[in-house]
Amino acid sequence: MNAAATKHPPASGHAPAPATLADDLHASPLVAQAVDTIVKEVRARSARITDVRGPASPAARQTYEDYMKRCADLRGRALLYPYIGSGLGHGALVELMDGSVKWDMICGIGVHFFGHSDPDLTAAALRGALGDTVMQGNLQANGDAYRFMDLLLKAAGRSSRLKHAYLSTSGCMANENALKVCYQKHAPASRVIAFKDCFMGRSVTMSQIGDAAANRIGLPLSTQVDYMPFYDPVAAARMGQGRYIDMCVSHLRQYIERYPRQHACFIFELVQGEGGFNTAPREYFTALMDVCKASGIAVWDDEIQSFGRTTSMFAYEALDLGDYVDVFCVGKMTQVCATLYTAEYNPGPGLLSGTFIGGSVPFAVGSRVLERLGASDFYGPEGRFARQHRAFCDQVRALAARRPEWFPRTGPCGEFADIVGGVGGMMRFTPFGGDKDKVMKACKALFDEGVIVFYCGHGPYHVRMLPPLGVFDERDWPRVFACVERGLAKVL
Ligand SMILES: Cc1ncc(COP(=O)(O)O)c(C=O)c1O
Q1: Are both 106 and 240 inside the same structural domain?
Q2: Stated pTM of the model
Q3: If exposure means fewest CB atoms within 10 Å of the residue's CB, which of 9, 191, 388, 410 is most exposed?
């Protein structure tokens, strides 16, 4: 990335005369050369990572095992996966500290959307590291924090009323800020409506709203949450779509009648992440959002996991729901997390603040991520992400045709809609009837065979992939699924 890309480029396209010494630093040919040299050095090693492989040597493996024991000691519990990265990779392939290489199909649960050791993002990170401070805050931030905000709000403004932003360093904190914005706007309303199986983060409040009992063991319950069913395609097909939606609307109205003017917001995860990559047709969401609008309840859209990955940059854009959204959260692949809100929801002074709003490197890389998402052929029904999703589905269906015994359509949680699902870069498949133990075992076996995945859903359980679609080559799906097949074969 060149100096011009770190600042607003001039309309003329000519490099501006440096106004500050910092501009002068970024315009320096020596800096450009140094960045280029480092990127080339990274690339020379990265290019040697070309396929899945085992540990570099038995000794390297032993050192790795010892190191993992030490890490488990430091953490107070064993690592979930025996994963410690070396710090180098190549696109979807990542090197571990023992020299082994795996396909990274989960990417830090959706963070590394442009894969590992991406040259362009390495250059952006190096430029970001030239900043005078490592971290930036609400009181004192540099231009790059506002540049990130500007890029995000311009993209959001294309199809929503979102106008302002507050930045933070985790998705959970972005959600905390969103909740405060909703509470303040609708004070003294203190109740929250959320969907079954939603996930919001791990703070005391978000653990209460998130619909997973295991995540709030031992926590006092201070937030009043009313849960709505998420769209169930099996029930909708059985009852008829219209009747099913009417039933859910009546469920919502009951809460509102039971607690009049006491709900501050309804949290919508338009594509549920942890909950199992579930989504719904537009009319399901509009029916519920219309009730919110008529009842003075904020529509809060949490796209921390889905942002960037569906068939539009924003899931609300893909579903044409932008006009409804009052408050919005983003994180993960943007590197910096953010709460966005409309002018009506702009909170009073003092509500949102914090020492850190982000780091200089995440601002530089996050801005570059937004630019790359915006300038690509990724989106639309025939865009690259939609095509990649079809290629993924084809692989699962071909595998199920070869091994039908691995893919029953019913399991411990009953019948489910399909063995493959999700949208765009949110990909899931459901082996072994969605049985929890077997799906967990499958995740571990896949790891051993060279593919890093995770699970999602609360029954049925699914194998979850959040691949680095920004750089992933469609032609590599058969290579990934060769490892998947070997892994699943080990489960039974
Ligand atoms: C939908 C959603 N909201 C919030 C969060 C919390 O984000 P973080 O883990 O960055 O705090 C997540 C994380 O997985 C998420 O998927």
Answers
A1: no
A2: 0.96
A3: 410
Q: What is the mean pLDDT of each run of 10 residues along the chain (492 residues)?
A: 43 61 97 98 98 98 97 95 96 98 98 98 98 97 97 98 98 98 98 98 98 96 97 96 98 98 98 97 98 98 98 98 98 98 98 97 98 96 97 98 96 92 98 97 98 97 98 98 98 90
Parent domain of 345: 135-374
Contact 356, 169 (CB under 8 A): yes
Residue 268 within a domain: yes
The finding on whether 106 has its CB within 6 A of some atom of ligand 1 is no
Ligand 1 mean position to 200 CA, how many Å? 5
147 and 272 housed in the same domain: yes
- Residue after which a domain boundary falls, among 346, 374, 402: 374
Render 458-482 in DSSP notation, one character per residue.
SSS-EEEE---TTT--GGGHHHHHH
Domain boundary pick from 323, 348, 374: 374
The answer on 100 and 173 residing in a single domain is no
Q: What are the beta bridge partners of residue 50?
A: none
- For residue 174, which of 39, 396, 329, 371 has the smallest C-alpha distance? 329
Residue 30 CB contacts under 8 Å (≥ 6 apart), including other chains: none
Residue in 109, 113, 305, 329 to alter for ligand 1 test, most ligand atoms within 8 A of Cβ: 305
Q: Which amino acid is at 466?
A: L
Which ligand 1 atom is nearest residue 302's CA? 1
Tell me if 369 is assigned to some domain: yes
Q: Are residues 429 and 446 in the same domain?
A: yes
Residue 420: other Cβ atoms inside 10 A: 20
Q: Long-range contacts: 19-24, Cβ < 8 Å, 24+? A: 22/132
Same domain, 170 and 293: yes
Position 176, amino acid: E
308 CB under 6 A from ligand 1? no
Residue type, 399: L
Could you give the dihedral angle defined by the CA atoms of residues 354, 360, 361 and 365, in that order, rounded to the nearest 10 degrees?
90
CA distance 116 to 309: 17
Domain count, the chain: 3
Tokens, residue 364 = 């530089």
Cβ of 175 closer than 6 Å to ligand 1, yes or no, is yes
332 and 471 part of one domain: no
| Same-domain pairing of 339 and 394 | no
Residue 126 lies in a domain: no
| Whether residues 398 and 469 fall in one domain | yes
